[in-house]
Amino acid sequence: MKLSILQVNSEDLSPYAIVCGDPFRAEAIARKLDNVRELAFSREYRTFVGEASGVAITVVSHGVGSPGAAVCFEELIKGGVKTLIRVGTAGSYSADVPPGSLVVSTAAVREDGLTRQLVPLGFPAVADSDVVQALFEAASETDGLVKKGITVTLDAFFQGVEEFPHQKYKRAGALAVEMEISALYVIASLRGVRAGAIVALDGYADADLREVYDPHTDVVTGAVEREIEAAIRAIVKLNQ
Ligand SMILES: O=P(O)(O)O[C@H]1O[C@H](CO)[C@@H](O)[C@H]1O
Ligand SMILES: O=c1cc[nH]c(=O)[nH]1
Questions:
Q1: Catalytic one among 202, 208, 214, 218?
Q2: pTM for this model (two decimals)
């Protein structure tokens, strides 16, 4: 079956997928795999397949924001993907997890506009516990700080006249904010597949992002390298 938006044949996909926002990060992830093939580059969705320790892995970029990412997640699941791991970046809420740290998301606050159109607001956005464990173990084997905990998924990146909800979620114990994990977790629950996510922290979220946001520092690049390594190793562990 040809997936109409990803422009990929479902027969070419593997049951394990790594997803990320940036098409260039998808390429960087794919370069770590053996026997890599690029399958398609349609809109923001760039798809590769390759192998790690003999396990076939699909890598796809989903772009920025939950609605576009949801299209990617839904088509991958329709195409037979059973385990999805998001490898992303996020803004930190706490000096305990400074930029350059990794966070494995156990659950996501649904501050996105998409999932309320799919399920009632009381429905939780939670990761699969086996995927969380595999990601946390694999990330802990890399050289740097890794924590697991609740993340926030928010549509707005730049602030308007409304206050961002960062302070209240920080006080409630959330570790970081990004833009797609709640969509991934809700869709995975709805469709009966496993999902997890790991994020590299690229700054502090409650600062004024327009002036200080710079995801292209060496510290962030190093953390992204670590999370890629962790996601690939987690999939190999999950396949054992
Ligand atoms: O680095 P990625 O995976 O794109 O994730 C984060 O970065 C983007 C914002 O710059 C949003 O997609 C957010 O979720
Ligand atoms: O959504 C995001 C992603 C990275 N960093 C942030 O501060 N926010």
A1: 202
A2: 0.97
